């Protein structure tokens, strides 16, 4: 089965049709997505600004991460679940949307950035975590994360408007 035929089948399932046709349920999912986005991005913003050395330099980075990562993770998980539900509501349209494709590509890059940070820099946090200005590689990870999340939000916001840009 090709991806296109799988997405067409998925779009015809009763759950997808119901979610797509229900104005209220889709709006509830969208609202949950945006609220989870605010939790995630708010906490990620503080974390990344700390990694850049631009915010809360008086507080050890490990303390900032310990306090905010659980909230960030919860926001991210809720955001991913609600995002998958929005995709499920119209999988063919979303898959064929250039802004959606850009968003997913940048999400993968953001995940790679986080993974690389956790594998390479985070284990040495006891060495640099008390510094007001973290090492260059840590700042690059924070800057990349901020840039990617801003671009992901912009691309996500443009998804419904592809027709105005390309038709």
Description of the structure:
The protein is mainly α. It is 81% helix and 0% strand. The chain has helices at 3-11, 14-21, 23-51, 61-89, 91-95, 98-121, 125-128, 136-158, 162-166. It starts with a helix and ends with a helix.
Helices, strands, pairings?
Blueprint: H1 3-11, H2 14-21, H3 23-51, H4 61-89, H5 91-95, H6 98-121, H7 125-128, H8 136-158, H9 162-166
Estimated structural class: mainly alpha
Global geometry:
elongated
Strand residue percentage: under 5%
**Poorly predicted residue ranges:** none
Q: How many helices in DSSP terms?
A: 9
Q: What's the rounded overall pLDDT mean?
A: 94
Order of helices and strands: HHHHHHHHH
In helices, the fraction of residues equals over 70%
Largest sheet: none
Nearest-angstrom radius of gyration? Answer: 19 Å
First-residue to last-residue Cα separation: 30 Å
How many DSSP-defined strands?
A: 0
Can you give keywords for this protein?
single chain; elongated; 167 residues; 81% helix; mainly alpha
Write a brief caption for the model:
With 167 residues, the chain is mainly alpha-helical.
């Amino acid at each position: 089965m090709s991806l296109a035929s799988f997405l067409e089948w998925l779009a015809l399932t009763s759950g997808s049709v119901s979610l797509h046709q229900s104005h209220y349920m889709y709006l509830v999912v969208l609202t949950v997505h945006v609220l989870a986005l605010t939790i995630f991005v708010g906490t990620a913003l503080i974390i990344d600004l700390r990694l850049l050395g631009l915010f809360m330099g008086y507080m050890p980075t490990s303390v900032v991460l310990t306090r905010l990562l659980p909230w960030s993770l919860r926001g991210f998980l809720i955001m991913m679940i609600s995002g998958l539900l929005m995709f499920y509501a119209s999988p063919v349209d979303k898959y064929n949307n250039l802004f959606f494709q850009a968003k997913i590509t940048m999400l993968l890059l953001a995940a790679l950035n986080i993974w690389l940070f956790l594998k390479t820099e985070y284990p040495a946090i006891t060495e640099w975590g008390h510094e007001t200005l973290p090492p260059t590689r840590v700042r690059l990870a924070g800057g990349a994360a901020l840039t990617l999340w801003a671009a992901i939000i912009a691309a996500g916001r443009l998804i419904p408007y592809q027709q105005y840009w390309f038709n």
